[in-house]
């Protein structure tokens, strides 16, 4: 196995031989998850034989996704994802017996996700809806969720479209206000005594100063009635970061980051939310996607 696959992404939390062994097993599990999910990196193939790149869509870590569902979402529960993006969270939910409802503004992304899922998923088939997540209550049609799980746009770090409703096109204060509305509307759709998890990273403004997006995410959830319950660090592959960070450190003394924050919130009683999840699941996602 290549070094890049072994170092693809890790949840950090300790050292020593046992942790190294866990990371090695997680890397192999991640490889199998990607094979099972049939993930296409940066490109989607269509029935007419054409293929096109899906700009602005990163591949979400499938092992993090698997752990989040196994730890914080009841089997058979409904996952709500207001910032759906690519197909990973929906496909892994389906493979683990969870229903999934994701919202995204871009019709080409919705089409790509559905095409991907048709090759891989059965029942429950993940559902993606084109629309504005500020209207998530209307889009979901009165249903309530058992787990809120998403990775929102990191302000204007990446621009996903030219749609003025797209958060990545907004100035930060407008972004933050709209983001808070979406978080509040999504949290309101959760059943009582349930968990939510957002994967976020901080971003800099035009002067190079951190915006405190992580803190603003915690504030948005707290204002929606969901206090912070857990925090984990997702350590991502360094790639070309040492080269890029070295140059920017010389010119500006800015340090590069190789991690994101996995923030877990709880609605209601943490003990009852834990009971609703049932026993912690173990096991493998079956390898080999259908042709």
TrEMBL record:
This is Methyltransferase. InterPro entries: RM_Methyltransferase, SAM-dependent_MTases_sf. It comes from Aminobacter niigataensis. Keywords: Methyltransferase, Transferase.
């Amino acid at each position: 196995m290549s070094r890049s696959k072994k170092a693809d992404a890790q949840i950090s939390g300790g050292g020593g031989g046992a942790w190294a062994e866990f990371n090695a097993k997680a890397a192999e599990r991640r490889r199998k998850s990607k094979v099972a999910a049939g993930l296409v990196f940066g490109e989607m193939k269509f029935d007419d034989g054409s293929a096109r790149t899906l700009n602005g869509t990163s591949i979400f870590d499938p092992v993090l996704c698997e752990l989040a569902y196994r730890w914080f979402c009841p089997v058979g529960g409904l996952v709500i994802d207001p910032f759906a993006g690519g197909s990973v969270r929906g496909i892994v939910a389906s493979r683990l017996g969870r229903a999934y409802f994701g919202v995204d503004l871009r019709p080409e992304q919705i089409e790509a996700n559905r095409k991907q899922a048709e090759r891989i998923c059965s029942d429950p088939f993940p559902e993606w809806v084109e629309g504005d997540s500020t209207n998530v209550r209307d889009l979901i049609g009165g249903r309530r969720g058992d787990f809120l799980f998403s990775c929102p746009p990191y302000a204007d770090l990446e621009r996903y479209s030219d749609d003025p409703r797209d958060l990545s096109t907004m100035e930060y204060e407008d972004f933050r206000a709209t983001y808070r509305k979406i978080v509040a509307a999504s949290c309101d759709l959760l059943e009582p005594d349930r968990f939510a998890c957002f994967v976020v990273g901080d971003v800099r403004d035009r002067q190079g100063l951190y915006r405190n997006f992580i803190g603003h995410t915690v504030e948005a959830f707290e204002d929606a009635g969901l206090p912070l319950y857990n925090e984990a660090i997702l350590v991502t592959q360094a790639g070309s970061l040492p080269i890029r960070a070295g140059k920017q450190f010389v010119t500006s003394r800015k340090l590069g980051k190789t991690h994101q924050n996995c923030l877990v919130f709880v609605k209601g009683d943490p003990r009852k939310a834990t009971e609703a999840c049932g026993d912690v699941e173990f096991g493998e996602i079956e390898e080999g996607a259908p042709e």
